[in-house]
Amino acid sequence: MKWSLFLSILYDIHQFNEYFIQTYDATGALELFGVQKMTVALRILQYSVPVDAVDKYIRIGETIAIVALNFFTKMIVAIYEGRALSTTYTINNHAYTMGYYLTDGIYPRWAMIVKTISQPQGLKRQLFARMHEACQKDVERSLEVLQVHFNIVRVLTRGWSDKDLYYIMKMCIIFHNMIIEDVRNIPENECSATLLQTDTTNTLCQMSCDPNQEYEEFMLNC
Fold first, then answer.
1. For residues 73 and 172, what is the distance between their CA atoms, to the nearest angstrom?
2. How does pLDDT run along the chain (222 residues), one tens digit per residue?
3. Would the pTM of this model clear 0.70, i.e. be above it?
4. Which residue, among 1, 42, 38, has the nearest Cα to 20 in the 3D structure?
5. 38, 96, 150, 213: least buried by Cβ within 10 Å?
6. What gap in Å lies between CA 134 and CA 138, rounded to an integer?
C-alpha cells in the first residue's frame, strides 16, 4: 500500500469518527495516535497475527488492538461501501429483481441459490452448466486473491463473532478494490493525503502537522 493511500484513508476516518484522532487522557498525557491504531488493524488483517503479539511492535495492548480493529473495519465499510446496482432479469417468462448465488450441489434448494447441472443433457443445459461453472470459478479466484492479501480470510477465525467476521470480510473486499484503484493512479488519494498533512482543525490536542515525520519517528522508536 502506498503511503498516500494510507494517509487518504486516515484522513477520511478522521472526518467520520474521532476515535482515530489523538487526544489527551485523564492524566494529561497524549494517547495513541491514528497511525498506531490503523497500523495495528492492518497487521492483524494482513498477517493474521494474534492481537497480543502486536504489543511489542506497535506498543498497543491487546484490548485496544481489538477495539482499533473493530472501529477500523466498521469505519471502512461505513465510509466506502457502495450500493449494489439494481438487478432485473427474466427466466422462463418470470421477472426477478433480486440477485442470486452460484453454488454447486451441496447447498440447499433455496430461492436465492442457483446450482449447476451435474450431468447436463442437451445443448441448452450444457451451455448453462458451462457458463455457470465459469462464473463460479471467477468468484473462487476472487476469494483466493483476498486470501493472498489478507491472511485473516485464510486462517481459522473461531475467536471472532459473526458480526465481526461480517465487517472484516466486507472491509477486505473494499480495501482490495481501493488498492487496485490506487495502483491505477487515482488522483483523489493524493488530494486526501495533502489535506491530512495540512489539516490543523483538530482542537482536542496539539498534533503534528507532518504525518510523515510522525510516522518515521514512530517506526524508529519501535
1. 9
2. 788 888 889 999 988 888 888 888 888 888 888 888 999 998 888 888 887 777 777 778 888 888 999 999 999 999 987 765 667 777 778 887 777 778 777 778 887 788 888 888 888 888 888 888 888 887 778 778 888 888 888 887 777 888 888 899 889 888 888 888 887 765 555 555 555 555 545 444 444 445 455 545 555 555
3. no
4. 38
5. 213
6. 7
First to last CA, the chain: 20
Which of 92, 102, 44 is closest to 68 using CA atoms? 44
Whether the CB-CB separation of 9 and 179 falls below 8 Å is answered with no
Burial code (b: 16+ CB inside 10 Å, e: under 16) for 101-126 equals ebbeeeeeeeeeebbbeeeeeeeeee
Q: Which residues contact 47 (CB under 8 A, 6 or more apart)?
A: 151
Element (H, E) at 91: strand 89-91
| Residue partners of 74: CB distance under 8 A and separation at least 6 | 167
